[in-house]
TrEMBL record:
<comment type="pathway">
    <text>Lipid metabolism; fatty acid biosynthesis.</text>
</comment>
<dbReference type="InterPro" id="IPR014030">
    <property type="entry name" value="Ketoacyl_synth_N"/>
</dbReference>
<dbReference type="InterPro" id="IPR016039">
    <property type="entry name" value="Thiolase-like"/>
</dbReference>
<feature type="active site" description="For beta-ketoacyl synthase activity">
    <location>
        <position position="156"/>
    </location>
</feature>
<keyword id="KW-0808">Transferase</keyword>
<keyword id="KW-0275">Fatty acid biosynthesis</keyword>
<dbReference type="GO" id="GO:0030497">
    <property type="term" value="P:fatty acid elongation"/>
</dbReference>
<dbReference type="Pfam" id="PF00109">
    <property type="entry name" value="ketoacyl-synt"/>
</dbReference>
<dbReference type="InterPro" id="IPR014031">
    <property type="entry name" value="Ketoacyl_synth_C"/>
</dbReference>
<dbReference type="InterPro" id="IPR000794">
    <property type="entry name" value="Beta-ketoacyl_synthase"/>
</dbReference>
<comment type="function">
    <text>Involved in the type II fatty acid elongation cycle. Catalyzes the elongation of a wide range of acyl-ACP by the addition of two carbons from malonyl-ACP to an acyl acceptor. Can efficiently catalyze the conversion of palmitoleoyl-ACP (cis-hexadec-9-enoyl-ACP) to cis-vaccenoyl-ACP (cis-octadec-11-enoyl-ACP), an essential step in the thermal regulation of fatty acid composition.</text>
</comment>
<keyword id="KW-0276">Fatty acid metabolism</keyword>
<keyword id="KW-0012">Acyltransferase</keyword>
<dbReference type="InterPro" id="IPR017568">
    <property type="entry name" value="3-oxoacyl-ACP_synth-2"/>
</dbReference>
<dbReference type="InterPro" id="IPR020841">
    <property type="entry name" value="PKS_Beta-ketoAc_synthase_dom"/>
</dbReference>
<dbReference type="Pfam" id="PF02801">
    <property type="entry name" value="Ketoacyl-synt_C"/>
</dbReference>
<comment type="similarity">
    <text>Belongs to the thiolase-like superfamily. Beta-ketoacyl-ACP synthases family.</text>
</comment>
Length: 399
């Protein structure tokens, strides 16, 4: 193994599987789906979502839901890392929090206010709540992180891109600590209607099994929400303060399909380039990978194309699963959430199953893990993330 490794010393998760890493990991390993009929989507073509349960509404008047997810996940990650923001040198702490949509619920609400009540009814907090960079900005404000603060948007790869950029910051010496991840709260009437019009969402009559990656009966994804945040440090910095390294980010690759706004390249050209770049970055071959956390959206084309990429570059016998069977698709947060799950898989030697997968599509000629988790040593895991616009990110996580 060559190249630079960033230590993950803290993880924070907020998803439809629960608030906090323990709740998330337990449900993902159990393979229990979370999709349900959503009363807030009444009257729309698709009424299924994967919402975060029992999430406290503190500061709802000034923070969009996606920002509150990011703050909660960052708080958990910092707590696990054993870092006290009140005592650190903030200029050496960077924040990179990606999102695909930003504060869409706030923007939708304020647009309604404008149409129904006129300009004087629009909140002066509309832009501080709705802008795409505000989760990153508010995390930096909350924790006194005065280093670089970035908000990458690569659609559904945003959270993974943020982690890759965070690792590169450490490699370049731009920061000693990076709070990196993704946050999204797109379960709104506008977003649901838009995705439904594209026929991207599942219309399965049984909500609990609607998100079924790689299944022959899959018919689209289930809209989800949440945040995933990791604390990244150089291995030297982590060792110097006696921190426990949960896993390491050892490879990062990014690419563009340059093909279509929403459809993946039919031969997975961009996805292949991203995975190959991550492997080259880490100085590894596909045979070194012991688990793949697939992008696995549960859409017919993505699952077919991704399966071929995994088979050709990693191997048909490497365990593969998609945790979107549990969480649905939280768009720009997905890559960070799934990188966290991949890190936990390496940490605990457990491959989570693909929830709701009962009849694997024959075109997915790979070793799909379903029905039950598998245990065993995992030295290296690959986490794939692909987004609209043909933007692709691959991360390699190691023990």
């Amino acid at each position: 193994m060559t190249g630079f490794a960033a230590a993950i010393t803290g993880i924070g998760l907020v998803t439809s599987a629960g608030v906090g890493v323990p709740a998330n990991w337990d449900r993902v390993v159990a393979g229990q789906g979370t999709a349900a009929v959503d009363p807030e989507l009444d009257g729309l073509p698709v009424r299924i979502s994967c919402r975060v349960p029992d999430f406290a509404a503190d500061n709802a008047w000034k923070f969009d839901r996606y920002t509150r997810f990011a703050l909660a996940a960052a708080q958990e990650a910092l707590r696990q890392a054993g870092l006290d923001p009140s005592g650190w040198e903030g200029s050496r702490v960077a924040v990179v929090i990606g999102s695909g949509a930003g504060g869409t619920a706030s923007l939708e609400q304020q647009h309604r206010e404008l149409l129904e009540g006129g300009p004087s009814t629009v909140s002066p907090l509309t832009l501080p709540m709705g802008l795409l960079n505000m989760a990153a900005g508010q995390v930096a404000i909350e924790f006194g992180a005065t280093g670089p603060c970035l908000a990458p948007c690569t659609a559904c790869a945003s959270g993974a891109t943020a982690i890759g950029i965070g690792r590169d910051m450490l490699r370049l010496g731009t920061a000693d600590i990076v709070i990196a991840g993704g946050a999204e709260a797109p379960v709104t009437p506008f977003y649901s209607a838009a995705f439904a019009r594209m026929r991207a969402l599942s219309r399965n009559a049984d909500p609990e099994t609607a998100s079924r990656p790689f299944d022959v009966a899959r018919d689209g994804f289930v809209l989800g929400e949440g945040a995933g945040v990791v604390v990244l440090e150089s291995e030297e910095h982590a060792r110097a303060r006696g921190a426990d390294t949960l896993a390491r980010v050892i490879g990062y690759g990014a690419s563009a399909d340059a093909h279509h706004a929403t459809a993946p390249h039919p031969e997975g050209r961009g996805a292949r380039l991203a995975v190959q770049a991550a492997l080259a970055d880490a100085g590894l071959t596909g045979r070194d990978v012991g688990y793949v956390n697939a992008h696995g959206t549960s859409t017919p084309m993505n699952d077919r194309v991704e399966s071929a990429v995994i088979r050709d570059l990693i191997g048909a016998d490497v365990p593969v699963s998609s945790t979107k069977g549990v969480t649905g698709h939280p768009l720009g947060a997905a890559g960070a959430i799934e990188a966290a799950f991949a890190a936990l898989a390496v940490r605990h030697g457990v491959v989570p199953p693909t929830a709701n997968l009962t009849d694997p599509d024959p075109v997915a000629d790979i070793d799909l893990v379903f029905k039950a988790a598998r245990t065993g040593r995992i030295d290296v895991a690959l986490s794939n993330s692909f987004g609209f616009g043909g933007q692709n990110t691959a991360l390699l996580l190691a023990a």
